[in-house]
Amino acid sequence: MRTICLMALLTVVSAPAQEAVFGTTVVIPAGLKGDIYHVAEGTESLDVLRKAKPVGTIYTSALNVPPQHFSIGFPGVTERFEWFAIDYGGKFWIKEPGVYRFKLTSDDASTLHIDGLLVIDNDGIHSPAARRGSVRLSGGVHTIRVRYMQGPADEVALTLEVASPGDDTPRIFSTEEFKPPGNPDEWNFAESMPPQAKDMDLDRSVPEVIPAPEARKRRRFRR
Ligand SMILES: [Ca+2]
């Protein structure tokens, strides 16, 4: 077992850093667990995941894949670099209740659910595009789910950013930042929710278009 884990780790470490950020096979207990799926060529929506069975699992604490070329697949899991999907799930802890603004950028499809509520819908086959959504969060534990699908090669993108109440600039969301307190006695929130705030980001119908990276020579590794 130890040898297998070491091999997986070495494979990930030896891969180009910018192409290994969907996650690795190294388990992160408090992070996001991503189940990987193969999807049929021509798939246009994340809806297909309802009936699919995962081919493997990766882990990460953040989704930070800016628009880039992707050709290596997932070391230790699958060599797919196109027509795959990842269903990430995890929990996070809110210390400061209020309206949190999220920004989800992807090539191709993605969605964000918080506590089972669809907050951002960026589904479909498309170039890098960002959509925003806001949600009022009470203090304590919440669930997060990000579904992602890469359609045609070779470009990919998947970033999830967050702005806390009062913050102007979003930053990459990380489960490392939103961990519960070490002392379980502090795991309670007696105070009520803050007053309803105006949601500035509810206009989700028009995605922001992120400039695609410079076109690179198309590489094919289909097996
Ligand atoms: Ca793509």
Description:
- The chain is mainly beta.
- It has a single domain (2-182, 194-209), classed as Jelly Rolls.
- 6% of the residues lie in helices and 38% in strands.
- It has one helix and twelve strands; from the N terminus they run αββββββββββββ.
- The chain has one helix at 2-14, and strands at 32-38, 56-60, 64-69, 84-94, 98-107, 109-114, 117-122, 129-137, 140-150, 155-163, 171-172, 208-209.
- It has a six-stranded antiparallel β-sheet, with no helix packed on it.
- A hairpin with a 7-residue loop joins strand 10 (155-163) and strand 11.
- The longest helix is centred in the first third of the chain and has 13 residues, at 2-14.
- Bound molecules: calcium ion.
- Calcium ion (CA) binds at residues 107-108, 150-152, 155-156.
- Residues 107-108, 150-152, 155-156 line the site of calcium ion.
CATH topology: Jelly Rolls
Q: Provide the structure class.
A: mainly beta
Number of helices: 1
| Gross morphology | globular
CATH second-level architecture: Sandwich
Top-tier CATH class = Mainly Beta
Uncertain stretches: 3-18, 202-206, 215-223
End-to-end gap = 28 Å
Helix share of residues? under 10%
Q: What's the order of the H and E elements?
A: HEEEEEEEEEEEE
Largest sheet, spatial ordering of strands: 2-1-4-9-6-7
The molecules bound to the chains, other than polymers, are: calcium ion
Question: What would the keywords be for this entry?
Answer:
single chain, 223 residues, mainly beta, Jelly Rolls, 6-stranded antiparallel beta sheet, 1 helix, globular, binds calcium ion
